[in-house]
Amino acid sequence: MENFTYLNPTKIVFGKDTVKDIGKNLYKFGSKKVLLLYGKGSIKKNGVYDTVVNSLKEKNIDFVEVSGVKPNPVLTKVHEAIKIAREQEIDGILAVGGGSVIDSAKAIAAGFYYDGDVWDFFEGKAKPYKGLPIFTVLTISATGSEMNSGGVITNEKENKKWAFGSPLVYPKVSIIDPTVQYSLPRNQTINGGIDAMTHVFELYFDKTKNNDIMDEVSEGIIRTVMKHIPVLLKDPKNYESRANLAWSATLALNRINGTGRQGGDWSSHMIEHSLSAFYDVSHGAGLAVIAPAWMKYVYKEDISKWVRFAEKIFNIHDGTDEEKALKGIDKLIEFYKKIGAPTTLKKLNIIEDDLEKIANNAALLCPMGNMKKLEKDDVLNILKIAYE
Amino acid sequence: MENFTYLNPTKIVFGKDTVKDIGKNLYKFGSKKVLLLYGKGSIKKNGVYDTVVNSLKEKNIDFVEVSGVKPNPVLTKVHEAIKIAREQEIDGILAVGGGSVIDSAKAIAAGFYYDGDVWDFFEGKAKPYKGLPIFTVLTISATGSEMNSGGVITNEKENKKWAFGSPLVYPKVSIIDPTVQYSLPRNQTINGGIDAMTHVFELYFDKTKNNDIMDEVSEGIIRTVMKHIPVLLKDPKNYESRANLAWSATLALNRINGTGRQGGDWSSHMIEHSLSAFYDVSHGAGLAVIAPAWMKYVYKEDISKWVRFAEKIFNIHDGTDEEKALKGIDKLIEFYKKIGAPTTLKKLNIIEDDLEKIANNAALLCPMGNMKKLEKDDVLNILKIAYE
């Protein structure tokens, strides 16, 4: 187990009928006027918008709306929101949505106080020194952004989908009401679950040895997500499954699961980001294709870990280590197929000739990964494995 | 799954060679003069005292010592320390030790600002409204007090071993260096592990339904503790086992594991507290006897949970539900015997005639428990099961 420090200052309010508590929480914090940030309007259909707005009004908290945050959220939107936030002199950000909205909120919160371009944080040219307080009402369980300090934004002019992180952008309060996810489109439930699973994979397969307790926690999260996605595909309003999936997705990336590790691998995420920098692919769908391909390419670096994965997740106990490891990866792909996720780049309508371009884009971050240090050619090989 | 709120503000610094970082952390916090609280001097033998004191001196942080905190820590010591803390105008408490020292620090921290008797908090007659900041250097993994907001103190005049809790007494920073536990006496490693396991039992067996994710986490903690105690009994300086046991014990009771539950049962703890209010029994040893007896008495209240326990922890898959449940409890007792823990009150040298007195003491807190609401006669029955 590796040395670590851990501190997570986010307060979670979890459960049925909790969205209406957002006003109370902002009031406690002393907020007077917030930037209300959301996406393309699904919150107006499912009632979340009305509940939030009423809750703010009850506590006389003023708000300015910025909407239209897209999946794979873009830098121009962040710039626009920072400008409005400054003009309107808001004192906090209320992000109502999923990872895209919350990640955008983080960039806005840190960019608000920074004279240069907020993109500098993503390029590593500057570090946030202050952040607006962030509050969230989560509407899809996937990224874990509601309880961590990272965010991913696409610089659409430069085709860079990159991440930044700072302890300053942990949300102060996040409300997770699983019932608001009853109305999620089927593919968003699937992709959200796969995103959460892949976060666990990034941490679990990172070459750390002897971290039994976090391996146990990781395996517990994976089994729980895999148990409840299929239930939700048949019964989207199953509260217990929504709740188990939601809390699992948060725990997958709230840093507890990363304690005592080497920081994770993150190649699958970086490669997927290059993919969705060019194609408007849902992050979870991209990961369903990339992560297993990455596994096939690197499993020999630590075969015992993939044997453990096969045993603990899929009950595979027969065969050589090699056979068990590969069977575990196959079973994962089989699960993805079963729940209706894409499992090849071809199925995502990626043009084969573009693989080189995607690999070149990823190469900006090479060498990447911890399980195996990947160079551009490795990335290209993984993309080829993923292709069909 | 139940609704919950979760916020844990404790910063954990975990790993090899981290004790020396305590001065730096206090300095960052702005501490000038702390109460240095510890036990009966083991920290002087294993070098922790010197490392802590040097670290304080390096940052010019003044300190006043109060030592002699006993296992099953007592109220008179808390009173003594509050008096000294006030006279010396300290601005924080540095607890160096295990649960007894940290629990005492919590009572001192809250009592420091309270005009009445700090015991009022334990009786529920008053609530802490302010607390001195607490910092800890953990020397034995067991209670989880290093990352939670509760404490247990014995009022020795009234034979009451009771608990209190307040968000104000979460430690600000806790340093967990597994290497300082290399020199622990064998029975303390055993009892610490059993305490951690029993915390998980209290939460796991509390009648909550459909909390798969926390059941998984609970089972992961139990398996990890059960794997590493036997290793440590043969090889007390095995770093990986010390580290896994340490982090598991913290996670067992840092409230994550309690999320989405009904608050836990806690009968085993309350009965054990009555036992050690009269007898100087180590808490973990008492729990090794009481918790399995409690299980035998109440398992029919939720037999499916004990079946799950038998399956997930001991791989028991044959027999009726009743048989599996009972076999699981027997296997737990067998494990306790194997590691050298006492498994009957008789072996703890409890006099049979005292069972009534112990049950009467526990009855002050009746009805107790969530799995089954226990009255005094139930407690007496459990003590009788535990006797031999």
UniProtKB/TrEMBL annotation, chains A, B:
One Pfam match:
Fe-ADH
A GO CC term assigned to this protein in UniProt: cytosol
Citing just one GO molecular function, the answer is: metal ion binding
| Superkingdom assignment | Bacteria
Entries under Gene3D superfamilies matching the protein: 3.40.50.1970, Dehydroquinate synthase-like - alpha domain
Which InterPro entries does this entry report, sorted A to Z? Answer: ADH_Fe/GldA (IPR001670), ADH_Fe_C (IPR056798), ADH_Fe_CS (IPR018211), BDH-like (IPR044731)
What residue stretches are annotated with the Alcohol dehydrogenase iron-type/glycerol dehydrogenase GldA domain?
9-178
Keyword vocabulary terms for this entry? Oxidoreductase
* The Fe-containing alcohol dehydrogenase-like C-terminal domain, residue ranges: 189-387
Record-given protein name? NADH-dependent alcohol dehydrogenase
Q: Which organism is it from?
A: Tepiditoga spiralis
